[in-house]
Amino acid sequence: MKKIILLLIIVVNGTFLPTLNAQEIVSTAGTVYETNGIQLSWTLGETVIETAESGSLVLTQGFHQSKLVITALDDITIADFEVKVYPNPTSDFVIVHFDENNWNAHIQLFDLAGKKLKESVTNNTDTQINMTEYPGGTYLLKLFNDNFHPIQTFKIIKR
Question: How confident is residue 67, by pLDDT bands cut at 50, 70 and 90?
Fold first, then answer.
């Protein structure tokens, strides 16, 4: 009987795993309470990161995010270097923020068909990219250093 139950669990999990999204919580319950400028939201199924107890009260804290958009498609290839691209999703502009500006960065914007839409070179820490001229969809923003060594690729969602 145990083997049948185990086999059933494996088959059911194998059937539904491809449809689950790791960045969303699939839960049976949850709600939000607001009062006097304080908000409390809870969801069953969160990962527990800390538990606090006081008498008969127990509070467990976890990660609670309704949606998490992953935008960096690969790891950064330069040590001790940081780049941020925000806001994402966007409807008008995207800002590329480099933690340092001592070299020229090449910025290329592509559609998902691989067509290069825009290319620029900057040595500023903040560079604004106008997305208003493009229809809603998903784009790839590729960043290179002055030797065209890839830094990082980002997925941009235009609404």
Answer: very low
Would you list the domain boundaries of the chain?
Answer: 2-62, 83-158
pLDDT for 75 beyond 90: no
Nearest Cα to Cα of residue 135 among 112, 108, 159: 159
Please say whether the structural domain 83-158 has been given the CATH code 2.60.120.10: no
- Is residue 99 pLDDT above 80, yes or no? yes
